């Protein structure tokens, strides 16, 4: 790095370079301070993109082996109601991932004016269709529909999002079930990054039913049961946790998992040196200087990485894991349905 | 009290009385210390027995009014498999409470050798029986039965224990459902004792699926949703929480709810002055001096009451609430079924 700086020195403004070198030295001193005090330097970045790619490669192999034993290609059907841009993007990413791992897929596009009854009829047809293994309805659905009714309409066996109340109940009872892809992705990230959770202090920031609640459940529950949960002591913080208390709980945590959609909520001062910080938040913000938009998480990444032991970036952290685990769920559904049809 | 001591003085051994008076003075000084330091004295005892009696009196009135509008008496059927003594006692208490509030009841006693299939058949018959509103199978069932299968066999509408996976899922999604009687009793105790939980720090010690998990869920979830939950920041501690960490979390808590069955687990040093301590634990122990058995909770009651602001005794705390809330659930089932049958 310093060599590079010296090279630049020959061609650039002197003052600017001195400032750059000084900043670099300051940063190195900072790192050395932590390295000295806590026996580590900058946080290790948990590369969700790389881990997700690893999972997808494994899945590709497994799907190949599944087909080699005479089974048809697993199939995922996504239903997209209306024209929400973010939903379009998410569904496209899922369909690409399906193709990548050898799962056939289809997107049913329905106009925003579709009635709830029509949607339920389509789900019913897909439930009965033996060529379909996984069904997902991209949320949110238009306001005139009851989201809960829609989620419950998908039969448990094909409910690859794990939002059916029956799957939720099974998960909360530590029983085998379809676990929502994002919480499953967080757990898989922790496992593959080798983060010890047994008897450790974890904080889950947020209490949403599709993301935070399942994370809290999987983090605290008994690893000896069917969900193979993480046995951590878990504190659930949420919008009504006073900021001072949130900071206190976070500073005690070995693992912080945040899923609030509040950019910059988790700051350096709140993080215990060496802690593992998993950022599930994802918010699109506009840079006031450039006017360009970018995705950010709940964590002040640049600051927190100086203290944490492990950290996930946004984007490239939990996001790719969600897509990979959805494929995992679809393949699980295909295997289960193949077993049911055989018996 | 001192008057009484003086009266005893005339009739009893002098030395003993002096000791008694000194102890009393010491205790008063201790109380004054806390009264001075924390602006309160001994913990206020939350009288579960009295609150349960209040709830039962209200229920009695409501059931009377329900019958006065032409409905038949609500009916609860309990199934008791085998001869477990504790189970016998629990079922008897429930049946007495039913009679007390005007709910008719019946106990089906089945031999321990009953097959799972036979039990499921009986449940199926009760599910279809329009004269039955609530069904409960006293747990534990004999080892040759699958407890989960038995719990799921009771239709949700009559599942007054709230153990059916569908009811569990609904509860975890903050939807109206049958909530297990003990967790519901704990929440009702807090509400009736006027304990503020909004944004407060709560610790739930234990992670059992029938008691602690629902308590953690109801304590942290959103009060604006259908379960009317308590909006506290909740830490879930369990057998793998190191003792030092348990003590740390408890000492930060405004509310401690413990349900472990480990007598004396919660000591004075762990409790923040003024905190509310709810003891769900209940263990029968033998007094090594007298050889007699007695019921104790998880909390070192005599010590903790000197620090806490509110405390429940064992027995006479959560126990009577469980029975009262089971009656509440049975009456709710009767009202719901009456509505369904009418429509």
UniProtKB/TrEMBL annotation, chains A, B:
<dbReference type="GO" id="GO:0004477">
    <property type="term" value="F:methenyltetrahydrofolate cyclohydrolase activity"/>
</dbReference>
<keyword id="KW-0554">One-carbon metabolism</keyword>
<keyword id="KW-0520">NAD</keyword>
<dbReference type="InterPro" id="IPR020631">
    <property type="entry name" value="THF_DH/CycHdrlase_NAD-bd_dom"/>
</dbReference>
<comment type="similarity">
    <text>Belongs to the tetrahydrofolate dehydrogenase/cyclohydrolase family.</text>
</comment>
<dbReference type="InterPro" id="IPR020867">
    <property type="entry name" value="THF_DH/CycHdrlase_CS"/>
</dbReference>
<keyword id="KW-0496">Mitochondrion</keyword>
<keyword id="KW-0560">Oxidoreductase</keyword>
<keyword id="KW-0378">Hydrolase</keyword>
<keyword id="KW-0460">Magnesium</keyword>
<keyword id="KW-0511">Multifunctional enzyme</keyword>
<dbReference type="Pfam" id="PF02882">
    <property type="entry name" value="THF_DHG_CYH_C"/>
</dbReference>
<dbReference type="InterPro" id="IPR000672">
    <property type="entry name" value="THF_DH/CycHdrlase"/>
</dbReference>
<dbReference type="InterPro" id="IPR020630">
    <property type="entry name" value="THF_DH/CycHdrlase_cat_dom"/>
</dbReference>
<dbReference type="InterPro" id="IPR046346">
    <property type="entry name" value="Aminoacid_DH-like_N_sf"/>
</dbReference>
<feature type="domain" description="Tetrahydrofolate dehydrogenase/cyclohydrolase NAD(P)-binding">
    <location>
        <begin position="180"/>
        <end position="336"/>
    </location>
</feature>
<dbReference type="GO" id="GO:0005759">
    <property type="term" value="C:mitochondrial matrix"/>
</dbReference>
<dbReference type="GO" id="GO:0004488">
    <property type="term" value="F:methylenetetrahydrofolate dehydrogenase (NADP+) activity"/>
</dbReference>
<dbReference type="GO" id="GO:0035999">
    <property type="term" value="P:tetrahydrofolate interconversion"/>
</dbReference>
<dbReference type="InterPro" id="IPR036291">
    <property type="entry name" value="NAD(P)-bd_dom_sf"/>
</dbReference>
<dbReference type="GO" id="GO:0019752">
    <property type="term" value="P:carboxylic acid metabolic process"/>
</dbReference>
<dbReference type="GO" id="GO:0004487">
    <property type="term" value="F:methylenetetrahydrofolate dehydrogenase (NAD+) activity"/>
</dbReference>
<protein>
    <submittedName>
        <fullName>Bifunctional methylenetetrahydrofolate dehydrogenase/cyclohydrolase, mitochondrial isoform X1</fullName>
    </submittedName>
</protein>
<dbReference type="Pfam" id="PF00763">
    <property type="entry name" value="THF_DHG_CYH"/>
</dbReference>
<feature type="domain" description="Tetrahydrofolate dehydrogenase/cyclohydrolase catalytic">
    <location>
        <begin position="46"/>
        <end position="161"/>
    </location>
</feature>
